[in-house]
């Protein structure tokens, strides 16, 4: 595993396991499988409705809690609702703390919601806080109004939407760029790109492994999702090869500034 340093000197795995879209009944076993394979970053959210089985898997995994990096996201609007929501999430997960709490979306009262995250951080309920689906202006507003800077912004990122301007802004502010939807929620389309297939042949790897490695080598944190043991193992086994500078440039040229999942118009800063 490789790690990125967040601004409060906390290390985060560059590759984690995503539970979005996995039913609550399947989540516990999926997370247990992921931890057994070697994943140490586990990503859940209030929206996913699977914080409880995620926490159960963390506790039953046999791995020291300090070795796991557990993220959840809050979707509540305003200070009081978010403050209560954080406590509810911890209770559902059965955990004493999260490693990272993200504000899932910009809200009508973003600043109130973020204030609750900052308080949770200071109270030891989370080791770090951050954002998800925030553009440059929205992120800057949070930075301007709080002493605790977000350490992550999770945004739709894949070969067709590489988020160059957002990445530059986040890097300048020492905020980790985290990708959701690394395959654009269309794995078949992404792995069939000729350039990706050729590079995969060069390294005797799968196209999916090439895509994940490209993002990690671009200093982008990624959470990959699968309930297939084979695919989970493949997604994890990306640290034994390195894309060349020429291959990186080849993949960078695939940029289309094209959202595929649910990227809102307010986020289109690359065009």
UniProtKB/TrEMBL annotation:
Pfam families: Aldo_ket_red. GO terms for molecular function: oxidoreductase activity, acting on the CH-OH group of donors, NAD or NADP as acceptor. Residues 22-254 form the NADP-dependent oxidoreductase domain. The keyword NADP applies. Keywords: NADP, Oxidoreductase. The record marks 73 as: Lowers pKa of active site Tyr. PROSITE patterns: ALDOKETO_REDUCTASE_2. Substrate binds at residue 104. Coiled coil: none annotated. SUPFAM superfamilies: NAD(P)-linked oxidoreductase. Belongs to the aldo/keto reductase family. This is Aldo/keto reductase. It comes from Limosilactobacillus reuteri.
